[in-house]
Automatic annotation (TrEMBL):
Belongs to the concentrative nucleoside transporter (CNT) (TC 2.A.41) family. InterPro entries: C_nuclsd_transpt, CNT_C_dom, CNT_N_dom. It comes from the Bacteria. Residues 10-81 form the Concentrative nucleoside transporter N-terminal domain. GO terms for cellular component: plasma membrane. It is found in: Cell membrane. This is Nucleoside permease. Keywords: Cell membrane, Membrane, Transmembrane, Transmembrane helix. The chain crosses the membrane at residues 6-21, 33-52, 96-120, 169-188, 247-270, 282-300, 347-369, 389-407. One of its GO terms (molecular function) is nucleoside transmembrane transporter activity. It is a multi-pass membrane protein. Residues 195-404 form the Concentrative nucleoside transporter C-terminal domain.
């Protein structure tokens, strides 16, 4: 009973930490925060208790996965060997970036014919009413649930350029908690699929809560608009000229993101190598983050020994990625052995791992924005990199707390 109470109280601790990192504490809309947190708890109960709730999310994910499989047809034609990596888990460039060569032009075409702005306007209006966010940010939270952070940023270029730097920063914070539909299937082969599917909508609501607190934005009604690629009275660009520019833009963006991610991952490895020169085997970024995350793991409802194990897995995920940890724990968590004989541990860690929140994701997001928005807006986002990492961690912790509360 004590751990259940601690787990529940952890939700308020994570919200409090987000408040400490807020750039405008007086402007936080606590009514909206309360509504979305309550909704997240209801969804946590719903997805942890009813399999048909998970089937709804899986159906949507399968639709986006189908789109990625279509993109893979083009990849297989040009680069067939890239679709079957020797590592045993998806190739980053193939699974997360190259599908953008289909996804970005497809969304640009929907924008060109006016369909996407219409969808954003109406879905955003409904979600905005519930969450209190501007229409585009509300729609973005759902869009990012399946497209992934690079794709969802790439398909929204006209909107980003019309928005302020602060609103772009909101979307950067939210993007830290994306996944992509093409990878969901890989996740479910390594960790319990029911918890993976539950994490997807929980991360959406968690991202809304944390970004609303850390970067409260209030805009006038005339600013809350959905941008079309065509300006009023402007002559429409010929379709194939427009399509060519879209494909070229997607290709440039892939190169920028790839270079940025390689640099970020290599820099993290360099720091670890420098630590190794001290002769202290325990000194590494993974262990440092494990120690930092220990109290938060304990707050999720574990005894100290279990909490330390979970914290180390969490730290490893932040420094490397979720696939490294999933591969390490897969046998035990799928068999319910060792730490994972406790269903609560399985649920909490799986939900925490189901997001792209890590160092390399920061590089992906910065690279995406660099290829999309002006230097001024990109510099504003780059100046808030620590807050982006904090936001990603807090969303994962909040989602894990809401899911774990209903699994013991």
């Amino acid at each position: 009973m004590l751990y259940i109470i601690v787990n529940f109280l952890s939700i308020f601790v994570f919200i409090g930490i987000a408040y400490l990192f807020s750039n405008n504490r007086k402007q936080v809309d606590w009514k909206s925060v309360g509504i979305v947190v309550a909704l997240e708890l209801v969804l946590g109960w719903f997805f942890m208790s009813f399999s048909w709730g998970q089937s709804i999310v899986k159906g949507a994910a399968d639709g986006f996965n189908w789109l990625i499989s279509v993109a893979n047809t083009g990849i297989a034609f040009a680069l067939p060997d890239w679709l079957h990596p020797a590592t045993g888990y998806p190739n980053f460039v193939t699974s997360a970036l190259l599908p953008m060569l289909l996804v970005v032009p497809m969304f640009d075409i929907l924008n060109y014919i006016g369909f996407l702005p219409w969808v954003v306007r109406w879905i955003g209006r409904g979600l905005s009413f519930i969450t209190g966010q501007p229409k585009f940010e509300a729609f973005f939270s759902v869009e990012m649930m399946f497209l992934g952070n690079t794709e969802v940023l790439a398909v929204s270029k006209p909107q980003f350029n019309a928005m302020s730097a602060q609103r772009n920063y909101t979307l950067a914070l939210m993007s830290m908690s994306c996944i992509t539909a093409s990878i969901i299937g890989a996740y479910t082969t390594m960790v319990p699929g029911e918890y993976v599917m539950a994490a997807v909508p929980l991360n959406i609501l968690g991202a809304i809560v944390i970004s609303t607190i850390m970067n409260p934005v209030h805009i006038a009604a005339d600013e809350d608009v959905v941008v079309s690629v065509h300006k009023e009275g402007e002559k429409r660009e010929p379709f194939f000229s427009f399509l060519g520019d879209s494909i070229l833009g997607a290709g440039k963006l892939i190169l920028i993101i790839t270079a940025t991610v390689i640099a970020f991952v290599a820099l993290a490895a360099l720091v670890d190598h420098l630590f190794s020169l001290t002769g202290l085997k325990w000194l590494s970024l993974e262990n440092i983050f494990g120690v930092i995350l220990f109290p938060f793991a304990w707050l999720l409802g574990f005894d100290p020994s279990q909490a330390f194990q979970l914290a180390q897995y969490m730290g490893t995920k932040l420094v490397t990625n979720e696939f490294v940890v999933m591969g390490e724990i897969s046998k035990n968590i799928m068999a319910g052995k060792a730490l994972f004989a406790n269903p609560h541990a399985s649920a909490v860690l799986t939900v925490f791992l189901t997001s792209f929140a890590n160092f390399s994701t920061v590089g992906m997001i910065l690279g995406a924005f660099k290829g999309i928005v002006s230097r001024e807006k990109n510099d504003y986002i780059a100046a808030h990199v620590p807050q982006m990492l904090v936001a990603g961690i807090l969303v994962s912790l909040l989602s894990a707390a809401c899911a774990g509360l209903f699994v013991w």
